[in-house]
């Protein structure tokens, strides 16, 4: 085992490591949520390493495998373990870049195999039942109808919906300007029902919700602030429970509407490259999950319909 420099405790070495990682993440413009997640994951590992008397220089791939095995034994999902290992890979990469380590022990560690759970997708009839259930007769219901019509019409993430401004909607061009992941802007077409719902909301409801602090935010809470992603999820759950013919067993969420948007496009002949651009995926491999959805649907149709299936 490599020993720490004279006068430096195990805890001192880890404090320096976490500080260097935080500084590097800030310099690279990482989002606050990302920095917080890395700090939580790093802090958890540091407590484990300190408890075993391990300095940063003493960490080996074998030690990391022991740590990952412990996470799995504690019931952590493969996706969670993979995320935590990615955080550690970043931590040790920082130490290598700063000359604290010669090599990154996490580079030799493979991530746990993730499950192949397919995204939850609503049928077109379920989407229609959900949206038509929102009455649009009060300021909040007008807002919700516009919000979820747009979510499905353009396949937007919850994070993208809440960052929209009134100026983001281009009525003449029938499209919306979206600030996606990594601060990348994309232009997404949207349908007439969504545009009509947004126009009604802006004309009849938004003025009643707006305050001087609302600025140009499109979707406002009853107190006039910009909606949060938790607001969006909560309001969708409310309407999903009330909609007849909509199964909530799979978890109706803004992302389920996004998955439904992509799957319905694929069902009706859209190509994967177009869907990739509409969703704002950096890689086509991310979009290819929808071919698995389509394949699963076809297998089910075959099994239920073919006389010798």
UniProtKB/TrEMBL annotation:
Domain Tyr recombinase: 117-303
Name by which UniProt lists this protein: Tyrosine recombinase XerC
Core-binding (CB) domain boundaries: 5-96
InterPro entries hit by this protein: CB, DNA_brk_join_enz, Integrase-like_cat_sf, Integrase_catalytic, Integrase_recombinase_N, Integrase_SAM-like_N, Tyrosine_recombinase_XerC/XerD, Tyrosine_recombinase_XerCD
Subunit structure: Forms a cyclic heterotetrameric complex composed of two molecules of XerC and two molecules of XerD.
Active site (record annotation): 157, 181, 255, 258, 281, 290
Role according to the record: Site-specific tyrosine recombinase, which acts by catalyzing the cutting and rejoining of the recombining DNA molecules. The XerC-XerD complex is essential to convert dimers of the bacterial chromosome into monomers to permit their segregation at cell division. It also contributes to the segregational stability of plasmids.
UniProtKB keywords: Cell cycle, Cell division, Chromosome partition, Cytoplasm, DNA integration, DNA recombination, DNA-binding
Chief localisation class: cytoplasm
Family membership: Belongs to the 'phage' integrase family. XerC subfamily.
Organism: Conexibacter stalactiti
Annotated compartments: Cytoplasm
Pfam families referenced in this protein's UniProt entry, alphabetically: Phage_int_SAM_1 (PF02899), Phage_integrase (PF00589)
CDD domains (UniProt xref): INT_XerDC_C (cd00798)
């Amino acid at each position: 085992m490599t020993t720490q420099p004279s006068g430096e405790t195990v805890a001192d070495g880890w404090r320096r490591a976490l500080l260097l990682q935080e500084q590097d993440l800030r310099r690279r413009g990482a989002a606050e949520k990302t920095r917080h997640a890395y700090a939580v994951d790093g802090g958890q590992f540091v407590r484990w390493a300190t408890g075993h008397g391990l300095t940063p220089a003493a960490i080996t791939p074998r030690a990391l495998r022991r740590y990952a095995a412990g996470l799995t034994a504690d019931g952590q999902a493969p996706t969670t373990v993979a995320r935590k290992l990615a955080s550690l890979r970043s931590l040790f990469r920082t130490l290598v870049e700063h000359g604290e380590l010669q090599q990154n022990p996490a580079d030799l560690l493979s991530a746990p195999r993730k499950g192949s759970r397919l995204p939850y997708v609503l049928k077109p009839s379920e989407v229609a039942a959900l949206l038509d259930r929102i009455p649009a007769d009060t300021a909040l219901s007008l807002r919700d109808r516009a919000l979820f019509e747009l979510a499905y019409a353009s396949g937007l993430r919850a994070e993208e919906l809440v960052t929209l401004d009134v100026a983001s909607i281009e009525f003449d061009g029938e499209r919306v300007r979206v600030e996606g992941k990594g601060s990348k802007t994309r232009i997404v077409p949207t349908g007439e029902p969504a545009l009509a719902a947004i126009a009604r909301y802006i004309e009849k409801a938004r003025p009643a919700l707006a305050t001087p602090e609302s600025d140009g935010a499109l979707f406002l809470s009853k107190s006039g602030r910009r909606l949060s992603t938790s607001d969006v999820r909560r309001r969708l759950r409310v309407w999903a429970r009330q909609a007849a013919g909509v199964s909530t067993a799979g978890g109706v969420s803004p992302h389920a509407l996004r998955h439904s948007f992509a799957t319905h496009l694929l069902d009706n002949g859209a190509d994967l490259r177009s869907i990739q651009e509409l969703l704002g995926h950096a890689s086509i491999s991310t979009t290819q999950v929808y071919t698995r959805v389509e394949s699963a649907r076809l297998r089910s149709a075959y099994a239920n319909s073919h006389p010798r299936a």
